[in-house]
Amino acid sequence: MSKPIDDLLAIMATLRHPEQGCAWDKAQTFQSIKPYTIEEAYEVADAIERGDFADLKDELGDLLFQVVFYSQMASEQGLFAFHDCVAAICDKLTRRHPHIFASAAHSASGAADAGAALQNWENLKSNERKKAGLHSILDNVPNTMPALSRAYKLQKRCATVGFDWPSVDGCWDKVKEEILEVEQTESGSPELVDELGDLMFAMVNVVRKHGLDPEAVLRQANQKFEQRFRAVEAKLADTATPVGQASLEQMEAAWQQVKQAVRPT
């Protein structure tokens, strides 16, 4: 009996077959598939947020299919195959967990807790980057990451070498400084973009120093806003004043009522 992963690889090969394959699948490239991969990753995250594990199973399958798709295209070009990807991650995991997979003597002196294990992982990553000719600690932080997440990762990288505020107080001082600079910058000027960016970057530092992920923090704020505004729409509809026809004063009054009654879930 074949294994499910072998079945999936065979299905992918059939979809890309020059004669019998699907026209859409055959037309795809690494670049054309990339947006779907990002979308599937977000759908995985959404299923986790909702606690829908039946959906998570399906979404993880969709994400796995993306890996298989890339691997099939790479195999056709003689670059690598799916099993090479599997071998690469197996090698990386064993290499970066010497306290688990190395000798008994090494294991005994390994990470005693999650924090130490993470530090070991980061130290090994740093050594690997140097061996690969990546000398800056900021090398290989993907430019394609969402800007908020990339700011967080850049700051975390710098913190590993001590370039960091000793406490959150320094971060708040920087935020206040940036707010003043934004207020003093003329609206519509080219400098305003820079100053607003500095302010947003400084706020990421505050969130990070509190031990939080800014992407998760902003996502929660989005959900809270959406929940409240939907309630505003419903409240205005009850008064026969659709939100598109209500005045700002009416919407603000409804917002304040909702704010008192609705709490984020």
Keywords summarizing the entry:
mainly alpha; single chain
Mean pLDDT comes to 90
Q: Give the strand tally.
A: 0
Structural class: mainly alpha
Global Rg: 25 Å
Helix share of residues?
over 70%
Task: Give the overall shape, derived from the CA principal axes.
Answer: extended
pLDDT < 50 stretches = none
Q: What are the secondary-structure elements, in order, as H or E?
A: HHHHHHHHHHHHH
Biggest β-sheet: count, sense, barrel?
A: none
Distance between the termini: 47 Å
Number of helices, where a helix is a run of at least 4 consecutive DSSP H or I residues: 13
Strand content: under 5%
Description:
With 265 residues, the chain is mostly helical. It has 13 helices and no strands. The protein has helices at residues 4-15, 23-27, 30-50, 53-76, 82-95, 98-101, 104-108, 114-131, 147-159, 168-183, 190-209, 214-238, 248-261. Helix 1 (4-15) crosses helix 4 and helix 3 (30-50) runs antiparallel to helix 4. The longest helix has 25 residues, at 214-238. The two termini are 47 Å apart.
In short:
The chain is mainly α and 265 residues long.
Helices and strands, with pairings:
Layout: H1 4-15, H2 23-27, H3 30-50, H4 53-76, H5 82-95, H6 98-101, H7 104-108, H8 114-131, H9 147-159, H10 168-183, H11 190-209, H12 214-238, H13 248-261
Helix pairs in contact: 1-4, 3-4, 9-11, 10-11, 12-13
